[in-house]
Amino acid sequence: MNKVKLLAGASAAALAIIAAIFHVEGDYVNNPNDPGGPTRHGVTQAVAREHGYQGDMRDFPKELAQQIYFEDYIRKPGFDRLIELSPAVGEEAVDSGVNAGPVQPSKWLQIALNSLNRRGKDYPDVTVDGRTGPATMAAYASLQRVRGRAEACRMIVKLMDAQQAGHYLRLAGDNSTYETFMPGWTINRIGNVPLGKCA
Q1: Angstrom distance (rounded) from CA 170 to CA 178
Q2: Which residues form the signal peptide (predicted)?
Q3: Span 59-111, pLDDT tens digits
């Protein structure tokens, strides 16, 4: 795996997450069943165009992919703050966001937090709005205080994985074209953040 250049404001944990995503996503693909169309380093042509890239996706530079991952999938959804609290939970959120869009794992995190607060006894419910803001971070920090850092991490990663698996099963059930991707999603996206990273 090639090393990526240091991004301004990116922590070592964020850079390691981006490097892991590059490893899973691979280089150039243009699967006719993928509505994202031509993709390189996991970045679709539509996303590349949004960021000003007009060239052939076969030539899409890894450095621009790295910037997109950091800005769109770590910093903007607030996952940089999550990475600070728990690198493993942050990795789960970022990796899921690259595959399903950052709003989805934000909601999965919020749903998981709400399901673990013992009906508000440990901390208040958060609004499930797909925005990982201060209330969501405070709820996660409270879960860490109640359950301990490692156990809170394991609980959240398990519940986010379960929701992600359900998401993929719904996609495949609603559109048989997505069945093409189920083996890869199951191998590379479900359980890809080992619970041992929570220690």
Answers
A1: 10
A2: 1-19
A3: 999 999 999 999 999 999 999 999 999 999 999 999 999 989 999 999 999 99
**Strand intervals (E) in 63-114:** none
Specify which residues 43 forms β-bridges with: 40
Range of the domain at 20: 10-76
Q: Yes or no: say if 126 and 113 are a contact pair by the CB < 8 Å rule.
A: yes
76, 97, 132 - which closes a domain: 76
From residue 63, how far is each of 12, 39, 70, 190 by CA, in Å?
16, 15, 11, 27
Sorted by sequence, the CB contacts under 8 Å of residue 107 that are 6+ apart come out as: 128, 129, 130
Asked if residue 113 and residue 47 are part of one domain, the reply reads no
How many folded domains does the chain comprise?
2
Q: What letter would DSSP give residue 191?
A: T
